[in-house]
Amino acid sequence: MDIKKEDIVRLRKTSGQPIMDCKKALQETNSFDEAFEYLRKTATEKIDSRRKDRVAGEGRVVVKCSHEQPVDGSKVAMVSLLCETDFTAKSDAFIKALDKIADEFLSNQPNAVVMGNVLTIIDEIKAQTGENVQMGTYYMLFPTKNNPVYSYVHFDNKKAALVTLEANSTPYELQQLGLNLAMHVVASKPRFCTEADMDWSEADLEIPAGLLSKPPSIIEKITRGKKDKYKAETCMEFQKYCLDDSMNVKQAILQVRKNQMMEIALKQFKHIEIGA
Question: For residues 187 and 273, what is the distance between their CA atoms, to the nearest angstrom?
Fold first, then answer.
């Protein structure tokens, strides 16, 4: 393959790799595309061997929908991508790479082809930034007519949440409630959605030895208090509502339900926080 100066310059701009590496890639291959792939592979191998022990503790979260609104038949993807520095997480190249990854998830159900494309995108951003870049957490939700999905991404782009409600219509007040509930998830970090979802195995329900001699009614009251405390700390519907701590989330939902005269139920949430 004849090595032209313009090809070297073009490959340098496209790959972000040093001039001499671009020249060598063109010498070792038979086309521009092969040279780009050669550079991507060799750059990734260098980064993986040199920086594999560096912590990817920074990054970015994005929420994207296959339609303008999360309507029946659409898909919602919440995806995080991790890197070493906040500087890289805020770069245009990193943001574009994360958008492309989210688009891959929206294009199809996550499968071998999609994950292969995602790994290629990650290798490319590794080569451009020289950092240890890793796939973070991702979730896919599928809104339906009676199960709308609402999202919130915090201003730092490191925290985000999705909330699915069960409702028979979607007036503005419900949309606002959905957004507020997603904000609540980011602010309060619940572990469980509803009481039915709760895992009590880690709850501290042990009665102190000094109180074991108390009457059964007192023991029952202490146990109930411990359960209520655990619910208020870990279960979303029993947490203090982040926009109005005079009520819990369950009461906030009931208030909108009463005002709108419609059925509303909390179905599920998903949460991502980088660096937590």
Answer: 10
128 vs 92: CA distance, rounded Å:
11
CA distances from 188 to 58, 178, 255 (A): 21, 15, 20
Residues in the chain: 276
| Of 173, 108, 175, 172, nearest in space to 148 by CA | 175
For residue 89, which of 119, 131, 55 has the smallest C-alpha distance?
Answer: 131
Q: How many CB atoms lie within 10 A of CB 83?
A: 27
For 134-166, what is each residue's pLDDT tens digit?
Answer: 999 999 999 998 999 999 999 999 999 999 999
Which tens digits make up the pLDDT trace of 73-85?
Answer: 789 999 999 999 9
56 contacts: CB under 8 Å, gap ≥ 6: 82, 83, 84, 131, 132, 133, 134
Give the Cα separation of 177 and 127 in Å (integer): 42
Whether 182 contacts 165, CB under 8 Å:
no
Residue labelled with tokens 């080569």: 127
**pLDDT of residue 70 exceeding 80:** no
In this predicted structure, what is the pLDDT of residue 167?
Answer: 93
Mean pLDDT to the nearest integer, 125-142: 90
Distance CA 255, CA 244 (A): 12
- 44 pLDDT band (50/70/90 cuts)? low
Question: Would you say 82 and 58 are in contact if contact means Cβ atoms under 8 Å apart?
Answer: yes
Residue in 150, 120, 157, 169 with CA at minimum distance from that of residue 274: 157
Amino acid (one-letter) located at 199: D
Both tokens of residue 108?
A: 């199809």
The region, left, alpha or beta by phi > 0 then psi within -120 to 50, assigned to residue 73 is left
Question: 37 pLDDT exceeds 90?
Answer: no
